[in-house]
Specification:
This protein folds into two domains: 101 residues, Muramoyl-pentapeptide Carboxypeptidase, domain 2, CATH 3.30.1380.10; 67 residues, no CATH class. 42% of the residues lie in helices and 12% in strands. It has a three-stranded antiparallel sheet with strand order 1-2-3, covered by helices on one side. A two-stranded antiparallel ribbon has the order 4-5. Bound molecules: zinc ion (ZN).
C-alpha cells in the first residue's frame, strides 16, 4: 500500500503535509498509514472489512476516495488526539467524519456511480452504424431494448464510450448478456 503523499492529487498534497507538520509539532507522532490505493488493494481491504477483521470502515472497490488520490489515513499518538487534528483539517476545508477518524479527505470527491443510464438510441448509434457488427447480436439487442433507457454497469458504459471498432462485437455481446439477464 502506497503511503507516499506524493501519490495524492496535487491539490491535496500541501494540505496533507501541513497537517502532518502541525500534528508533529504538537508531539503527536503522526504516521501516514495509507494514501492512494489500487483497485486490488481496495478489494483486499474490503474483503478484510467484510470478514470483520478491519479496525476502521472500508469502502467497496471503486467507491473509495483512496483509489482516486483524494484521501489519506493518518494515525497519531494518542489516538484520542485525532479529534483535535480533525478540527485543524476541517478548519482548512477538509472532510473528516468521526466514524472513520484516521481518514482525511479532500472536499468534492464523489465516487463514480455503479450504474449508468443510457438511452437505447445512443446504444443503437454506437453499435448499429459500423460494419462487421454481428447482426444476430444486434437483432437480439433490438428486441431487448423495448424501453427507451437501460441501466448498465458503469464499467461497461465506459468501455462502450471508448470502444474501438475491433471491440464492438465483444462489447455488444456483453451488453446483450447483461440486458437479457434483467
Ligand atoms: Zn481512509
Amino acid at each position: 500500500m502506497g503511503a507516499s503523499l506524493g501519490s495524492l492529487i496535487p491539490e491535496l498534497q500541501p494540505f496533507a503535509s501541513d497537517l502532518v507538520t502541525v500534528a508533529g509539532r504538537a508531539g503527536l507522532q503522526p504516521r501516514i498509514t495509507s494514501t492512494r490505493r489500487t483497485h486490488a488493494e481496495q478489494q483486499r481491504l474490503y474483503n478484510r472489512y467484510l470478514a470483520g477483521t478491519a479496525q476502521f470502515p472500508v469502502a467497496p472497490p471503486g467507491r473509495s476516495a483512496h483509489e482516486f488520490g483524494y484521501a489519506f489515513d493518518m494515525v497519531v499518538t494518542p489516538m484520542e488526539a485525532l479529534e483535535d487534528v480533525a478540527q485543524v483539517w476541517q478548519a482548512a476545508g477538509g472532510v473528516w467524519h468521526a466514524s472513520d477518524p484516521i481518514h482525511f479527505e479532500y472536499p468534492g470527491f464523489t465516487p463514480e456511480p455503479q450504474f449508468a443510464t443510457v438511452s437505447a438510441g445512443d446504444l443503437w448509434r454506437v453499435f448499429a452504424g459500423p460494419e462487421n457488427v454481428d447482426m444476430n447480436l444486434l437483432e437480439t439487442l433490438a428486441t431487448v431494448l423495448v424501453t427507451s433507457t437501460i441501466s448498465i454497469p458503469y464499467e461497461m458504459f465506459r468501455s462502450i464510450l471508448n470502444a474501438k471498432p475491433g471491440d464492438l462485437n465483444r462489447l455488444l455481446r456483453e451488453l446483450v448478456n447483461w440486458a437479457t439477464r434483467l
